[in-house]
């Protein structure tokens, strides 16, 4: 019980640290400009190559790639973080995202294969986990067995970026790579300093009461009027954005939550309780406007109400002595922080269904066009959320009566239903509250783990339990574990976590509408499945994996748990990068894929 209490205390401390990181939107936004907080260090690529633009007319997907298809634009070598043979970029319909595809050529000494192989990573992770080093590379092992291997980095992960042309894509990819390398070096060397923090983090507001004497009253009036105009404009802009539901980013219920949060923060500035009635009157009128349909006069009404809101604050400021002339500064700070929160909601606006319905189909279509398998099918392996995506794809296609385009799949530590297990992912359940998800629009997983890593590997080892979530004792070389922790994780949208937490509900994971449950239609699939679990996986325990396997037709399902009572043991990432995986797990996968590759 004492050990459990200690772990729970450490978890609460870690979550508190998370709130500190998330409570400063400026810090997250500064990383978001490079698509996410992805910090990593990697050796130089094994094979250098050049980017080219490919726009095949036979399908809708456009790609910037290293292939020599027309039209072609030559640009410099791929970023150092990418250790694949080639780096391709594929665009997504109705989006400015360019998804990174790491390509590994099959070994000429290996037997020829009929299908290319797609690898999908877990939530908030990138391609590095599949290619930790030349001697510990899941992707290299698969290509060495003759499979043309591709790793997809979904939107927001790794080198996937937002851009409209090859030059922008190339520049952004290199910037992300350099940032990952620099920060990882700093964390490893223990030299991360305040100077390395983003430069646009605002300085703390001055905590002072300022009063002007009669000689300075004219100056005070000028300052107040100038600030007032600026504050009214800022408030009007925010209310206009909210009235537009952030161009479809917020539902009506979410809009009300965000509006209430803003007004509550502003109300706390009022010292004079007699002004609360006027504040509530303005609040009611603003909410009515927000709920109404847009019209040509709404901007003027918002401006008038914003002016009234600022006037109430000013009257509250004058009702105390000495006057608190920093009230407008504090109001401005509230408005700016709220604006940044809205920006985060817009920037990190994707969930599990975006991956399933947009990212993966775009990648599969592009890989098929590049490799041209005779039956048009791919083999696929998914780790953690990557496997969940594959299950969801089989379920969707079974329900629709469509061909999935998959010849066979392998899932590593994946499940559609975690209720039978004691998964540590239950720590995410507090974010299942939609209000909390809006208040914390992103979880900077990469930044959090980078900050926590020294505490888990150095005395007094207060966060050493974090290592057990990733790898069992003595299963990963310390340098590879360090690289995995510092290189492999990025920022996660709360919307994604909100959807994934439905896997802890009675009916299992569902789509964003809450009406389609992926468990319900998995039995309709005709695709062979190999499901693999680790005996000491605290994130996706064997009980959770087996729960999903039971839903698959018996003649199509294979299930294997790795780990022995006396060791070695397998935790969540050991199935991919553990020291024994190459001897035990990889051959099992190759045997299964080889059987399915014959047809």
TrEMBL record:
Key word Ribonucleoprotein present: no
GO BP annotations, alphabetical order: lipid catabolic process
Assigned keywords, A-Z: Lipid degradation, Lipid metabolism
Record Pfam families: Abhydrolase_1
SUPFAM superfamilies in alphabetical order: alpha/beta-Hydrolases
InterPro entries in alphabetical order: AB_hydrolase_1, AB_hydrolase_fold, UCP031088_abhydr
Domain AB hydrolase-1: 353-573
Name of the protein: AB hydrolase-1 domain-containing protein
UniProt source species: Populus tomentosa (Chinese white poplar)
């Amino acid at each position: 019980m004492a050990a459990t209490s200690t772990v729970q205390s450490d978890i609460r401390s870690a979550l508190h640290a998370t709130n500190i990181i998330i409570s400063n939107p400026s810090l997250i936004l500064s990383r978001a400009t490079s698509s996410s907080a992805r910090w990593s260090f990697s050796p130089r690529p094994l094979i250098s190559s050049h980017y080219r633009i490919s726009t095949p007319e036979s399908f809708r997907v456009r790609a910037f790639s290293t292939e020599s298809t027309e039209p072609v634009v030559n640009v410099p070598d791929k970023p150092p973080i990418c250790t694949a043979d080639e780096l391709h970029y594929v665009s997504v319909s109705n989006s400015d995202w360019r998804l990174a595809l790491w390509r590994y050529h099959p070994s000429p000494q290996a037997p020829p294969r009929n299908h290319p192989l797609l690898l999908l990573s877990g939530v908030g992770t990138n391609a590095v986990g599949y290619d930790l080093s030349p001697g510990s590379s899941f992707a290299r092992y698969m290509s060495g067995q003759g499979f043309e291997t591709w790793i997809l980095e979904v939107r927001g992960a790794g080198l996937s970026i937002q851009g409209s042309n090859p030059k922008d894509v190339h520049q952004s990819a290199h910037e992300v790579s350099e940032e990952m390398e620099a920060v990882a070096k700093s964390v490893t060397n223990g030299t991360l300093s305040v100077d390395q923090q983003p430069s646009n983090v605002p300085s703390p507001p001055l905590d002072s009461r300022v009063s002007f004497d009669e000689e300075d009253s004219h100056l005070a009036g000028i300052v107040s009027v100038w600030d007032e105009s600026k504050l009214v404009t800022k408030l009007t802009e925010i209310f206009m954005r909210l009235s537009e539901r952030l161009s479809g980013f917020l539902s009506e219920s979410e809009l009300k939550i965000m509006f209430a949060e803003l007004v509550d923060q502003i109300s706390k500035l009022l010292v004079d309780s007699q002004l609360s009635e006027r504040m509530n009157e303005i609040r009611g009128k603003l909410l009515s406007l927000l709920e109404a349909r847009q019209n040509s006069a709404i901007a003027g009404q918002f401006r008038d109400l914003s002016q009234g809101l600022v006037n109430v604050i000013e009257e509250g400021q004058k009702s105390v002595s000495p006057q608190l002339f920093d009230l407008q500064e504090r109001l401005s700070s509230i408005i700016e922080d709220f604006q940044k929160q809205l920006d985060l909601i817009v920037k990190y606006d994707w969930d599990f269904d975006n991956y399933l319905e947009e990212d993966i189909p775009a990648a599969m279509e592009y890989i098929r066009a590049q490799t041209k398998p005779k039956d048009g099918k791919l083999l696929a392996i998914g780790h953690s959320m990557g496997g969940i995506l594959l299950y969801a794809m089989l379920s969707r296609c079974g329900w629709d009566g469509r061909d999935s385009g998959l010849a066979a799949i392998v899932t590593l530590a994946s499940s559609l239903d975690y209720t039978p297990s004691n998964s540590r992912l239950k720590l995410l359940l507090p974010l299942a509250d939609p209000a909390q998800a809006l208040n914390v629009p992103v979880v900077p997983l990469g930044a959090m783990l980078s900050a926590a890593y020294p505490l888990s590997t150095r005395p007094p080892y207060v966060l050493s339990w974090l290592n057990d979530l990733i790898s069992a004792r003595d299963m990963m070389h310390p340098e590879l574990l360090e690289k995995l922790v510092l290189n492999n994780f990025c920022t996660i949208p709360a919307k994604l976590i909100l959807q994934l937490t439905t896997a802890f509900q009675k009916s299992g994971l569902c789509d964003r509408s809450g009406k389609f449950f992926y468990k319900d239609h998995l039995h309709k699939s005709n695709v062979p499945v190999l499901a693999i679990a680790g005996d000491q996986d605290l994130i996706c325990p064997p009980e959770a994996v087996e729960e999903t396997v039971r839903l698959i037709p018996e003649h199509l399902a294979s299930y294997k748990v790795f780990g022995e009572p006396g060791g070695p043991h397998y935790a969540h990432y050991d199935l991919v990068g553990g020291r024994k995986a190459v001897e035990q797990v990889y051959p099992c996968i190759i045997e299964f894929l080889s059987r399915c590759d014959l047809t």
